[in-house]
Amino acid sequence: MEAIYESLIKSSGAYAALKRDCETRRLSHAYLLVSPDRLSLDMLADMFLALAIRAENGSDYTAGVYNHTLGDITRLPSEDEKVKVADINHLTETAYYTPTELRRKYYVISYGETMNEASQNKLLKTLEEPPAVTGIIIKASSESKLLPTVLSRCRKVTLEPFSTDKLKDALSQKYPSSGSLDFAAETSKGLLTRAEQVISSPLYPKLYEIALQMLLKLNSSGGAAEYAFKLYDYRENLSDIIDFIELLLRDAVRFACGAEESRDYVSEIAARYPVNVALKEFEVLARARRRLELNGNVTAIIDELVFSMLEVRAKWK
């Protein structure tokens, strides 16, 4: 538990909503906490658990929650980062057991988006007829892969991205002497997990520079081939480069619409990619991201990405 970031989590609307449930004693039997920000999501879940247990038991079990030493809290999956049928079987088989320390026991399911349909249908039976002694918290990066029947039986709370200023302030407390605070806060899309990665690794400025140079210098088929080779060298981080390209284009669109302050490269990108062109490029980036998520051939994805971006600009010119 990153205690230094507690104030950041407490500033969120998600925390306020969960705290209100605890204070009014209107706790649902099942919660779905949603955010692609894994670090913040984990902290939010533990902070909520501590509040809920205190509200129900009248005692402070915060240390036990944060240290994972409370026997009445079961965390799934038991291994790896994918929920397996065996994990859900364990939940459904033990959900009606009486808690030993608390008035209610909790199952915390991480990576909820990895549950297959069979696992979700198995879990659904418990969600439909929840034991009074059991609470379920599902953490997921997205709700898109969860069945509508599961969604309808959970109280969904979404943790929205943080503002750049709030993120920078939180990072400055942990990394007061870092020269990468601005870069990390501005390129993380409001996600603490990404900000931590960026500020801790010299790789991300290199990936950002590749994205920037592609947008500024991609002009011909020869240049497209050059950047395709460069992207292949960083194929393990292709998703990050796509994110940076998208971020830079969004800054350019905001600048063109008068909502972004002028920076040397932003105005230049805006001139090369007018709003209608940028919108087409977003479609190209989204297609590449989807193919990556489906484990498509990386070389083919890179080739299509680079040449499609070039084609969009060529059609506009």
Characterization of the model:
- Helix 8 packs across helix 9 (181-187) and helix 15 (275-293) runs antiparallel to helix 16 (298-316).
- The protein has a five-stranded parallel beta sheet with strand order 2-3-4-1-5, with helices on both faces.
- The longest helix has 20 residues, at 38-57.
- It is built from 16 helices and five strands.
- The protein is of the alpha/beta class and 317 residues long.
- Helices cover 59% and strands 8% of the residues.
- The mean pLDDT is 93.
- It is elongated and about 70 Å long.
Question: What are the salient characteristics of this protein?
Answer:
single chain; 317 residues; alpha/beta; five-stranded parallel beta sheet; 16 helices; 5 strands
Quick summary:
Helices cover about 60% and strands about 10% of the residues.
Strand order of the largest sheet: 2-3-4-1-5
**Total strand count, please?**
5
Counting DSSP H or I runs of 4 or more residues, the number of helices is: 16
Task: Determine the mean pLDDT.
Answer: 93
Ordered list of secondary-structure elements with their pairings:
Layout: H1 6-10, H2 13-23, E1 30-34, H3 38-57, H4 62-66, E2 73-76, H5 85-94, E3 105-109, H6 117-128, E4 134-140, H7 148-151, E5 155-158, H8 164-174, H9 181-187, H10 192-200, H11 203-217, H12 221-233, H13 238-256, H14 264-272, H15 275-293, H16 298-316
Parallel strand pairs: 1-4, 1-5, 2-3, 3-4
